[in-house]
Design brief:
The structure is a single chain. This protein has a single domain, classed as Roll (Ubiquitin-like (UB roll)). About 15% of the residues lie in helices and about 25% in strands. The chain is built from one helix and four strands; from the N terminus they run E-E-H-E-E. A four-stranded mixed β-sheet has the order 2-1-4-3, with helices on one face. Strand 1 and strand 2 form a beta hairpin. The chain is globular and about 35 Å long. The termini are far apart.
C-alpha cells in the first residue's frame, strides 16, 4: 500500500514515502505535483498538520487544501 497525496482533483500514490517525516513528504509532494508554496493547509488523514517530525505510513493520506475564498493557485 502507498501514501496518497491529494491536491484539489489531483491524486497520486507514492510507494517511496512510507516511513518518511511529514515535512519531507510535503516537500516531495509539492515538487512532484507542482503544488504552490502558498498552499499552507496540509493535513494528514484529515487532521491538522501533525508537526514536521510525524512519520507518514503506508495507507496514510496527505491532503493539501486551498483556503476558501482565495484566488489562483
Amino acid at each position: 500500500m502507498a501514501v496518497s497525496v491529494v491536491y484539489g482533483a489531483d491524486e497520486m500514490e507514492f510507494d517511496q514515502l512510507d516511513g518518511m517525516e511529514f515535512s519531507k513528504v510535503v516537500d516531495i509532494a509539492r515538487r512532484a505535483m507542482s503544488i504552490p508554496d502558498e498552499i499552507e493547509d496540509v493535513r494528514l488523514n484529515g487532521r491538522e498538520t501533525p508537526g514536521d517530525t510525524k512519520i507518514v505510513s503506508s495507507g496514510d493520506v496527505v491532503q493539501f487544501y486551498k483556503r476558501s475564498g482565495s484566488k489562483g493557485c
